[in-house]
Amino acid sequence: MPRTVRDVVFVDGVRTPFGKAGPKGIYHETRADDLVVKAIRELLRRNPGLDPKKIDEVAIAATTQIGDQGLTIGRTAGILAGLPQSVPGYSIDRMCAGALTAVTTVAGSVAFGAYDIAIAGGVEHMGRHPMGEGVDPNPRFVSEKLVDESALFMGMTAENLHDRYPQITKQRADEYAVRSQEKAAKAYANGKIQADLVPISVRRTNPEAGETGWGLVTADEPMRPGTTLENLSGLKTPFRVHGRVTAGNAAGLNDGATASLIASEDFARENDLPVKMRLVSYSFVGVEPEVMGYGPIPATEKALAQAGLSISDIGLFEINEAFAVQVLAFLDHYGIADDDERVNQYGGAIAFGHPLASSGVRLMTQLARQFEEQPEVRYGLTTMCVGFGMGATVIWENPNHKDAGGSK
Amino acid sequence: MSTTELLKGAAELFPDEVVTQAHVRHLDLPFNAGRFALITLDNGFDHTKPTTFGPASLANLDTAIDQVEKEASAGEIVGVGITGKPFIFAVGADLKGVELLKEHKDALAIGKGGHEVFKRLAGIAVPTFAYYNGAAMGGGVEVGLHCQYRTVSAALPAFSLPEVFLGLVPGWGGCTLLPNLIGADKAVSVIIENSLNQNKQLKGAQVYELGIADALFEGADFLEQSLLWTASVLKGEIVIDRPVIDRGEAWDQAVARGRFIADSKVHGAAPAAYRALDIIAAAKNGDLQQGYDAEDVALADLIMGGELRSGIYAFNLVQKRGKRPAGAPDKNLARPVTKVGVVGAGLMASQLALLFLRRLEVPVVLTDIDQERVDKGVGYVHAEIEKLLGKGRINQDKANRLKALVTGVLDKAEGFSDADFIIEAVFEEIGVKQTVFAEVEAVAPAHAILATNTSSLSVTEMASKLKNPERVVGFHFFNPVAILPLLEIVRGEQTDDASLATAFAVAKKLKKTAVLVKDAPAFVVNRILTRFMGEIQNVIDEGTPVEVAEKAVEPLGLPMSPLVLLELVGPAIGLHVSETLNRAFPDRFTVSPNLAAVVKAGKRGFYVYDSGKPELDPEVAALLQQGNSVLTEEQVRERVLDAVAQEIGLMLDEGVVAEAQDIDLCLITGAGWPFHLGGITPYLDREGVSERVNGKKFLAPGLASVPA
C-alpha cells in the first residue's frame, strides 16, 4: 500500500515550574505522577479545540521508572488526567533525553500515519528518585573495561570533557553559567517563561523547610539571579579534586514535568490547533560513555546531514545545559562564540534546572516562543547530551518564516 | 470574656482533643494578582482521621486569623483563603469534646467560641475564600460560609450539615448564613431534609448547583484552579452574581415545609429540627448577629439535653461498636469461606443467596425438595441480578460473573460436599431443622459452618443431635435482608470460637452490623418488639381504642406505628412469635385472642388504605372483642414503656447480650428505632422508666446523657 510521510508539528508545550530536589525543595511532598498529570491537563485546557478522544497516544518519559514514576506512567497519567479510557499510553526512557525521545517517537508514528496527534512529555522527581536509585550495572562493564567507572557519574564525564578540550577552562564555564543566570532572569522579567508554566499546588508539613500548609508554585525554584563570577569561583569541585565542574556551572538535581502535543500538520490545521514548530529531522548518536557531553556534536552533524542543512542555517539553538563544558564543546566545534545571541536566549538548565527526562520538551517550548518572536529565523535546533554516551538533536522549522514549507 | 480566654477555658475541659493546626502560608497568585495568605486546616493525621474543631483547634484558627487580619490591614496581602489537608476540608466540631460538656455555660462557650472565631473571617479587610477540597461537614461547612467566596471540588464525596441528624443545630453560623446565601428552601433541604433522611450527603457538583459554592473544579488540580479563579475574581475579571434571595412568602413556606418534614420524621419527639427551623425562620430579616445569638442558645440547650447525647451515643454505637462487636472471638480464628450452601429455595433463602453472592462473590448453591422450587430460587436470584444490571448498579461482566456463581441442585451431597458455610432457611419447626442439619452434616466437609436463620427456635437444640454441634451458629437476618443492617449472631451452648469467628468474618463481608446474642427465646429484636406489641395488643384487648393505643407511642418517633409494623411482618408471623414467647415466658408474653381472630379471618392487617391513609378495617373492627378498661395515651405509653424496660432488664440479667448498648444497637439497626432515642435505653433512663421498673438506670451517667 502506498504511503506518504506526513509533516509533523509541535502544537504546544507546557511545563511545571522546576524545583530543587531534596527535603527543602518545593515538591518534596508532591508526587511525580501528579506533576505530569497537571501538565497534561493544562495542555488540554490551553487547547480546548482538541477533543481528548482524538488523542492517539500518551508517551511519558522518566529515567527512574519506580514508584510514582513507574507503573507505565504514560498510561496511568492519562487516566489520572481524566483522558478517555480509549487513549493509550506508554513509558519511555532515554535518561536526560527522555521527553525529547517521547517527542521523536510519537513524531515517527505521526509521520508514518499511525497517529494524528499524541501527547509527549516527561517527568523526573529527583528528590523522590535520586539518580542511580535501584541501578544494578552489569559487572562486565568494569571487568571487561567496556566503560571506565567514571562513565556512570555524569559529573566525572564532564571533567573528562574538560580534559579532552583543555581550552575550555573553568573560567569559561563559570562565565557561561553567569550568563545563563542573567539571561534566565531577563527572560522572566520580560515574561517569556511564565506563559508556559503550569501552576502547581504544593503541600509542606515540615516547618524546617518553610511555611507549612498548601502553597502555589508559579516560578522555577533553582534560579539564582544575580550570580557573579566571584560567587562561582569559590565553589567546590565535587567530582575531582582541583577539578572544574561545580554546582554553579552545571544543572542541579531537580523535580519537574513537561508535556507537549505533537500532531500531523494536517490534523493541527483541520482542528484549528496552533502550529508552533515543524519537525525537520532528528537523530540520536552514541559516543564514548566517558565523555557523554560530546554527544550533541555528532547527533547534530547527523541531523543536519539528514535535513541537507549546514550549521549556518540554524538561527536559534536550545542546548540543554547539563554542564557548561558540554555546551562550550559544542560551540567550539561549530565555531560559535560563547555568548552568541542565537544560543539559549532565555538561559538554560544551569538556571532553570534539569529534571532529567522532562527537559527535552522545555527546550522545545522555549524554542517555539523564540520562533514566534523571530519570524526571520527559519531553522532552530534542540539538542542534549545523554547518559552512557549519547547525543540527541531535533531540527525544527519556524512556520512563521516567509519561506517555511508545510501546508499553511 | 475574650475569645482567647473562652477557648482556653474550654480547652481545659477537653485535654484529649485531636488538635487541628491552622497553617498560614503565603503565595503569589497567578496573573500578578498579588500576595495571598492561604490557611490550611490540618490535624497532622492522614485522611482516615478527618480534621475536626475542638477548642484548641479554634484557638489555632483564631491565631491564624490574627496574623492574616494584620497583614490584610497593612496591605501586605490581597486575599485570604482557607482549605484542608488532602481529601478532607474539615468535618466539624469534635463530638468527643461535646460529650464531655457538663454545664450550660461551657456549652454556650463552645457555641460562642466558634462564632467569635469564624465570623472574624468576614471582618478581614480583604476578600476571603473557602476551597472545599474534600469532605466538609458541620463546622467545616460553616467556616466556609463565613468567607466571601467558595469553590468546591467535583471529587468531594460528602458535604453536609448533619447537626439535626445528631440532635444539634448548625450553630456556628449555618442556620443563619445558609438561608441568607441560597434561600430558605434550599437551606431547609440541606439542614433539615438531608439530616433527617439518614444524614444524606451532598456531592461536590450538588454543592455548586445549590449555590453554596461559586465555582466547581475537578479534583485533579482543584486547588490550582481555585487559586487561578481567585486571582481572576480579585482582578475583577470574574464577577460573582448570586441570585437574589426570596425573602417573602417563599421563606415562610420553606420553614413550613421543614416543619412538615420534621413532623413526619420525629413527630415532635426530638427538638433539634424545630430549633433549627426557628432560627432559619428568624434569619429572614438578614440580621446575622441575632441569628448567631440564637444559635448559641439553641446549641447550649441541646448540648445539655438528652436527645443530643442519645444521638451521639447512637452514632458511636453504629460507627464503632457496630464495627467491633462486643464478645466476638479473635478474628484470626476465622476459617475461609469459599463456597456457600443454602438449604431451601424459598423467598427468604433466595434473598440470602443473593446477599451472599453479591458480598462474598463465591459459588452459592441452593437446594430444595423438588426441581421446580430450585429453579424458582435460582430464577429469583438471576432476576435480581438483571435488575441490578438494569439500574446500572453492576456492569454486564459482573452480572455474568454473579449469575455463573449461583446454581441449584436437588442432591445436597452434590451441592455441599465442598461448601464451607451452609445456611438453612427452611420451615420454622425444630424437627424439620434438625432433620435438615443431619442431612447436611452427612455430606458437608467436617469444617463447614452450619448456620440457621431461625428467628425464634433454640440453636442449641437444633445442634443437639449432630456429631459436631460446635459448628452450628445462629445467623438471624432482618427483613428486608438487603436493607436492614442488623445480623444477630447466636452462640449455641456448644458453638466453638472458630465457628463463631467465621460467622463474624462472614457478617463483616456481608457488611452487616453483627451483634453477639445468647441462645435465648427470640433473641433480641423480636423479643423486645413482641413484648412491646404485646402490651399494645393487651391494652386494645382490654378496651382502649386502637387509635389511642397507636397514638400513645408516636412521641417515640418510631419508623411506623405498631399495627402498621404488624402488617409488614404479617399478623400470622406476629401471632406465631407471640405464641413461642408465651411458651417460654407465659407470665409476660400473652397471645392476643383478637390477633388470633384476625389471623383466623385471613386478614393481612388491621387497616385499609382506601382514603389514602390508614383507617381501621371495618371487618377487623367487627372481629375485635374489647373489654371496658379505657386508658389515656399517657397511661398506655407508661404501660408499654414499663413492659419494655422490664424485658430489657431481664434480658441483661440473663446475659442475652453483653451490655445495654447491644440492645440499642440491635433496635437501631434491626428495627429502625431512631437515633435521637439512642435506641431505647437512653430514653427509658431519661424518662425515669428504668428506675421506676428496675430500680436503676441501664447506662452509666455520661454515656448517653450529660455527665455527672
From TrEMBL, chain A:
Its EC number is 2.3.1.16. It holds the Pfam family Thiolase_N. One of its GO terms (biological process) is fatty acid beta-oxidation. InterPro entries: Thiolase, Thiolase-like, Thiolase-like_sf_Thiolase, Thiolase_C, Thiolase_CS, Thiolase_N. The active site is at C96 (acyl-thioester intermediate), H354 (proton acceptor), C385 (proton acceptor). One of its GO terms (molecular function) is acetyl-CoA C-acyltransferase activity. One of its GO terms (cellular component) is cytoplasm. PROSITE patterns: THIOLASE_2. It is an enzyme of class 2 (transferase). CDD domains: thiolase. Residues 8-266 form the Thiolase N-terminal domain. Signal peptide: none annotated. It comes from the Bacteria. Residues 275-397 form the Thiolase C-terminal domain. Keywords: Acyltransferase, Transferase. Belongs to the thiolase-like superfamily. Thiolase family. This is Acetyl-CoA acetyltransferase. It comes from Streptomyces canus. The lineage of its organism: Bacteria, Bacillati, Actinomycetota, Actinomycetes, Kitasatosporales.
TrEMBL record, chain B:
GO terms for biological process: fatty acid beta-oxidation. GO terms for molecular function: enoyl-CoA hydratase activity; long-chain (3S)-3-hydroxyacyl-CoA dehydrogenase (NAD+) activity; NAD+ binding. Pathway: Lipid metabolism; fatty acid beta-oxidation; Lipid metabolism; butanoate metabolism. The keyword Cell membrane does not apply. It catalyses: a (3S)-3-hydroxyacyl-CoA + NAD(+) = a 3-oxoacyl-CoA + NADH + H(+). Keywords: Fatty acid metabolism, Lipid degradation, Lipid metabolism, Lyase, Multifunctional enzyme, NAD, Oxidoreductase. Residues 339-519 form the 3-hydroxyacyl-CoA dehydrogenase NAD binding domain. Residues 523-605 form the 3-hydroxyacyl-CoA dehydrogenase C-terminal domain. InterPro entries: 3-OHacyl-CoA_DH_NAD-bd, 3HC_DH_C, 6-PGluconate_DH-like_C_sf, ClpP/crotonase-like_dom_sf, Enoyl-CoA_hydra/iso, FA_oxidation_alpha_subunit, NAD(P)-bd_dom_sf. In the central section; belongs to the 3-hydroxyacyl-CoA dehydrogenase family. This is 3-hydroxyacyl-CoA dehydrogenase. The lineage of its organism: Bacteria, Bacillati, Actinomycetota, Actinomycetes, Kitasatosporales.
